[in-house]
């Protein structure tokens, strides 16, 4: 499975203390589960040869977040999966941008665990 350990090391501290954290290798990368729910993942896109985030944001803010830099629909099968986004490096290169995506994923995760 291909994913950037550097990116994983950037994501981990942002999730620390936010609930029960598990890491699972799945979907060709590394997925971070918070309180038993898929929250955010990282993978390497072989076509673009770039790292990308898989961010679970839910359907409520989906359209708005789709317009953010680097964001696009998550599409594994030819059909986009609403509520999940792929974010390319131009969307998470800075620490503030990565904070933004992790916080959005955690916000939706909290809704799932109410």
H/I helix tally: 3
Q: What structural class do you assign from the helix and strand content? A: alpha+beta
Q: Can you count the beta strands?
A: 6
What integer value in Å does the Rg equal? 13 Å
Query: Which consecutive residue ranges, at least 5 long each, have pLDDT under 50?
Result: none
Which of globular, elongated, flat, extended, rod-shaped describes the shape? globular
Could you please describe the fold and organization of this structure?
With 114 residues, the protein is α+β, with helices and mostly antiparallel strands. The protein has a single domain (5-112), classed as Aspartate Aminotransferase, domain 1 (Alpha-Beta Complex). The protein is 30% helix and 31% strand. It is built from three helices and six strands; from the N terminus they run αββββαββα. The protein has helices spanning 5-15, 62-66, 95-112; strands at residues 21-26, 29-34, 37-45, 50-56, 71-73, 84-87. It has a six-stranded antiparallel β-sheet with strand order 1-2-3-4-6-5. Helix 1 (5-15) crosses helix 3. It is globular. It comes from Maribacter aquivivus. This is TfoX N-terminal domain-containing protein. Pfam families: TfoX_N.
What does the secondary structure layout of this molecule look like, with pairings?
Layout: H1 5-15, E1 21-26, E2 29-34, E3 37-45, E4 50-56, H2 62-66, E5 71-73, E6 84-87, H3 95-112
């Amino acid at each position: 499975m291909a994913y950037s350990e550097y990116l994983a090391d950037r994501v981990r501290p942002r999730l620390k203390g936010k609930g029960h954290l598990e890491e699972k290798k799945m979907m060709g990368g590394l997925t971070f589960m918070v309180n038993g729910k898929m929250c955010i993942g990282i993978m390497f896109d072989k076509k673009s040869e770039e790292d990308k985030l898989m961010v679970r944001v839910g359907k409520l803010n989906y359209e708005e977040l789709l317009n953010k830099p680097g964001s696009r629909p998550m599409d594994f099968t030819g059909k986009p999966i609403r509520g999940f986004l792929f974010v390319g490096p131009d969307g998470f290169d800075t620490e503030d941008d990565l904070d933004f995506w992790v916080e959005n994923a955690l916000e939706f995760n909290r809704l799932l665990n109410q």
